[in-house]
Records
---
Amino acid sequence: MCPEVMAALVEANAHHVPGYGDDPWTRRAERLFRDVFETDCEVFFVFNGTASNCLALWSLCESFHGVICHRHSHIETDECGAPGFFMHGVTLLPADTIGGKLDEQAVRAAHQTRHDFHAPQPRALSLTQATELGTVYTTSEIGALSAVARELKLSVHMDGARFSNAVASLTVSPAEVTWRAGVDVLSFGGTKNGAGMGEAVVFFDRERADNFRRRCKQSGQLASKMRFLSAQWVGLLENGAWLRYAEHSNRMAAYLERQLERVPGAKISFPREANAVFVSLPEEAAAAVASKGWRFYNDVGPGGAARLMCAWDTTESDVDAFIADLLSAVSPNVTPG
Ligand SMILES: Cc1ncc(COP(=O)(O)O)c(C=O)c1O
């Protein structure tokens, strides 16, 4: 946890307050979200990203609906079928593109399934920002996809587990890249940017938020001691820590990418646009650094590249230590400089 979040939690622990979100910390966090997004949005706090995505989508869909998403999206590949489970059978309609970003053609192709009553009816479009492959949709790309969604009568959900990194990368306002570009509901990630746990579900279209608290309760996501989720957001949002940390982790990823150029055989797989670097490494080098304790996935997206993530507290020396281990694995006689 970053110090701002820890400090807010310690402060929130000082007194007793009413439960289930009827408390000053939750009110303060809600106000901060409205300031950050420059609109009267409705905000809810849940424990994790899977629930945040599924509950957000559930508020847009009936069980017979379909959600268009990327083939490599977290909801499709990494939530153990939770969208179908939460939404009582809703179908995911995966679309494919290279690089993790959906485009108009892919969305239209996924939408062109049968529309008679024997088939699931497409009802929502879910975009991940930043994407699972570390790329970032520009504001105009989101605007164009939202326009297609409107034409096809789809609501727009954004999986923003790394939304902060996307905003830092684009240097735009959060409003510009969400509701002003046509996003209806955002799952805003805290855990990957300095929070201990917790994600916020932000409804720009307040009508969609009807019964959301009931859905949270029913699915075990309504925290009785809500202030310990919401206070973390006060720590992140009040003095801009969320953006500073996201800028920092993006900067560390840029540094890591530059350092990887020194490693013979290392090849960057996707454009590095936020805090993730995807790199294809010689097999023996990947195994050697893993044996020294470095941990990374190599099954996110196509091609088996190592997914290297930089965090809010990654330092240049962390990167240097990793690169030194990689260099000694690929060329044992070279002294890292
Ligand atoms: C794109 C994306 N969405 C959502 C999540 C949230 O998942 P969790 O339920 O583990 O908090 C993750 C976590 O890896 C993710 O990468």
---
Amino acid sequence: MNDILRNIYERRAVRKFKNTPVSKDLIDILLDAGRMAPSAMNRQPWRFYVLTDTKKIKAFSKEIAEIAIKEIKHVSLKEVAKMTLSFFHLSTMIDFLKNDDHIFYGAPVVILITSPVKDEWGALDIGMCAQNIMLAAKAIGLDTCPVGFAKFVTQTRDFYSLNIPGTELVQLAVIAGYGDEQPEVHERIENNAVYI
Ligand SMILES: Cc1cc2nc3c(=O)[nH]c(=O)nc-3n(C[C@H](O)[C@H](O)[C@H](O)COP(=O)(O)O)c2cc1C
């Protein structure tokens, strides 16, 4: 198997990291890989906000978890009648978030990725960009996890300190670091292709 395919198959969402910091040179390699992603009409809509201050990352993580818990409760009350989401799943999720650091998982690097608020293709472009970052990370010995909950960073008290303008939408974070776990592969659904 060639290196790219191996990276695709061996990448995992890693949620436990060593205390080792990641050098700026390596972070720059990740960002450059992100910039090489395809984008609709070649707009390259991404902007990257890189956090490496572990105290700051922890503080954001704690506050985002609190906000996420509130949002989950809010959504469930409205949606519970029509969704099959049971209260068991809901409470499990809330218990999970209440524990230590279940947003950024103690990662030494958090890359928040934004796209313009009014951009029809923003989410897709950022998804491609994030995947490039994660595969590049794997290639240089780092592990990652995409974090959708990061979108709640906009509701935190210290959001202003990130200098993200109101014209940008936080789509996703990719956390990165030297992994301290080797998660098993999640089985993939395979009966989802139709050959015409
Ligand atoms: C758009 C997106 C958002 C995600 N958000 C989170 C998140 O907020 N927290 C988390 O722990 N994992 C998050 N994940 C990771 C998924 O849970 C993970 O990719 C999935 O379980 C498959 O596992 P694998 O990446 O190891 O193959 C997210 C993944 C994607 C693609």
